[in-house]
Every structure is written in structure tokens, then in C-alpha cells.
Specification:
By secondary structure, the protein is mainly β. Helices cover 3% and strands 43% of the residues. A six-stranded antiparallel beta sheet has the order 1-2-3-10-5-8.
Length: 137
């Protein structure tokens, strides 16, 4: 057995049903699953985003935040800087700070993804690069 001291960390659990969805600056519907302002974690946030069929988020960027998108359901079209590509359940995309991006839902079902942000998501770090349109989520 090691002589290392184990630091006890409180269990931080968020029940999915208790999370109220809201709309972010880019137009996606978000459930903030873990965020420092609410849960006491320190360096990142985790949210579930949903984009309805035929809709997309507004083109935007985050100047400080790196995002990871992990597609959990549906399929979509990802715009990442000058690239566009199809994404589907199981795909993970890294969005470096300062990179313009948006995502559109393809097909008849909503596009659902997990979004991890480091540092944690902050509305003030979102810069919209286009005006809202009827095609935004």
C-alpha cells in the first residue's frame, strides 16, 4: 500500500432532468450539464446542444475558448474556418480558439452533441460573425 495521501473531492453530480435548457448567443438550445458557476468545477464546462432539423447555429467564434463537439445523435454539416464537412453520431471535432464555426442539422432528426469548453462557456466570449437569420436554430 502506498503512503500517498488521497485528497477527498466532493461528488459533483447533475441530474439531466434538473437542467433547464436555454438558447445561447449562437442560437443553439443548450443544457449546461456542468459549469463552474453552478457546480464548483474549475477549468471547463460541459453542455448538450440540440439543433433542430433544417436549422443551424449562427457563424461565430470564441476568442479564448477551445471547444470539443462530440456528436451523439443525428447528422450535420460542420463549418470550421474555411472547411465544411459532414458529421454524424460518434464524430468528435476540435474547435481551436478564434476559429469561425457553425453547425447545421441534416435529415429528419435533431442533431445532438456534447460540447466541452475550456475555459468554461461564457456568453461574453462568443462573437457573432453574421446576423441572425430564419435558418438559425
Amino acid at each position: 500500500m502506498s503512503d500517498m495521501t488521497v485528497l477527498e473531492t466532493p461528488v459533483r453530480r447533475q441530474a439531466y432532468a434538473a437542467v433547464t435548457p436555454y438558447i445561447t448567443k449562437d442560437g443553439s438550445v443548450i443544457r449546461e450539464l456542468m459549469h463552474p458557476a453552478v457546480h464548483g468545477n474549475q477549468l471547463q464546462s460541459l453542455a448538450e446542444a440540440t439543433v433542430q432539423p433544417g436549422q443551424r447555429t449562427q457563424l461565430h467564434r470564441h476568442l479564448r475558448t477551445e471547444e470539443l463537439y462530440h456528436i451523439t445523435a443525428g447528422s450535420g454539416r460542420m463549418t470550421l474556418a474555411d472547411s465544411e464537412f459532414t458529421v454524424a453520431a460518434g464524430d468528435t471535432i476540435c474547435i481551436p480558439p478564434g476559429t469561425p464555426h457553425c453547425i447545421a442539422a441534416l435529415g429528419d432528426t435533431p442533431l445532438t452533441l456534447l460540447c466541452c469548453c475550456a475555459p468554461a462557456y461564457d456568453h461574453a466570449d462568443t462573437e457573432l460573425l453574421e446576423a441572425a437569420t430564419d435558418n438559425s436554430a
